[in-house]
Every structure is written in C-alpha cells, then in structure tokens.
C-alpha cells in the first residue's frame, strides 16, 4: 500500500483527488490539507510515501513547501499553470498534472510512482544520486543532477555533463535502467535528456544553454506530454 496526502487551497481540486484515489486500491489517502503549515507537521510526523502538491499555495509556492521538508516523499505536482513543468523536475517530481486532469492521466502518474518505488525503494537516498561508469581505464562517478544529455553511437554512449564528457560502452536500455525514470527521457533515436537541466525548447530542439539537440518526430508527442505542454 502506498500512502499519500493531498495539499491544495481549492476544495474542488481536493475532491477530485479524493475521487480518483478511491478508485485505486493500492493507494491510501491519509489526509487532505488546505493549510501548508499543518501539512508539513503531519508529513514530518508520519510515513507518507507520496504528496499530491499544488504548486500555487497561499503564502508560498509548492516548491518552497518542499524546501521546508526534512524528508521529502515522492511528489506529483498539480497546478493550472504549465510554465512550472520544467522547474518541478529540479525537485525530482515524479509527474506534473495539469488541471483539470481526468482519472486516466491520474492513474498514469500513480503508475510512475509505483515504478519509481519498485526501482529504488530498497536503496538509500544517497545511493540514488549517482552511479559509476567505466570510461576507458577509469571508473567515473556520475551524479544524476550533473547530466545534461546522453548521445548514442554504435555500441557506445557519450554522457555530456556540467563537468565535461565521458564515454562508456553501454546500450541505452542498460543506461536507462540505472537512471531515475522521473528525471530522464529518450527524445530521439540517438539522445536521452535530463529534464531538470533543460534550458528551453524551441523549433523541435532542446537547448542546454549553448548546446542543442533535436527532438525526434516519433518521440515528440510523449516528450511534450511528459512536461505537460
């Protein structure tokens, strides 16, 4: 059973979440909150696996709310404003629901949480932040947050990070099994990107400041859905 709470200043939004949760037997709603301060106290006292969090809360934003938490559960942001989508991934949000959302979209977000918990539920929080690759004769530790994008060519992958480039003999499937699925996505036959490090999206290209990569036609629809655009 996955436990959750919902935080929103709109009663109608909370009622919709209650209705959707009632249809999922694996999900247990522990409480709904209008007041962020009360929600913080509740989350810190108990074991909450998942937060449905409105990004526009009275007094401060949902992102400010997460900064206040000592131990952050998994998060699904809910909001009427799509411009926060990319920023939400900086906080490893599993998904981003754009209001109004139907049950099918809600269920898809929940299934992503299940997958994340299944992949990382037995790992410590620190272990989820990096992995090791073999680059020639070197073994290199790669921080997930440092990765900008990964390019594939032949039997090799080139990882472009904030610190430089590394090459590893590995397939995309092998790599994706090591990356947190909420933060990385394949957007082209030859590219995987870090959602949290995207600078902008323009004319079928994703920009990482002075670097850009193409969005493949077969990947564009899923990519735009992922960031709710």
TrEMBL record:
Q: Which Gene3D superfamilies match?
A: 3.40.50.2300, LytTr DNA-binding domain (2.40.50.1020)
For this protein, the record's SUPFAM superfamilies field holds: CheY-like
Sites bearing 4-aspartylphosphate, chain numbering: 54
Keywords from the UniProt entry: DNA-binding, Phosphoprotein
Q: Which GO terms describe its molecular function?
A: DNA binding
- Describe the location of the HTH LytTR-type domain by residue ranges: 131-229
- Domain Response regulatory, which positions? 3-114
Q: Which InterPro entries match?
A: CheY-like_superfamily, LytR-like, LytTR_DNA-bd_dom, Sig_transdc_resp-reg_receiver
Give the PROSITE patterns listed for this entry: HTH_LYTTR (PS50930), RESPONSE_REGULATORY (PS50110)
Please report the name of this protein according to its UniProt entry: LytTR family DNA-binding domain-containing protein
Q: Which organism is it from?
A: Agaribacillus aureus
Per the UniProt record, the lineage of the source organism begins with: Bacteria, Pseudomonadati, Bacteroidota, Cytophagia, Cytophagales
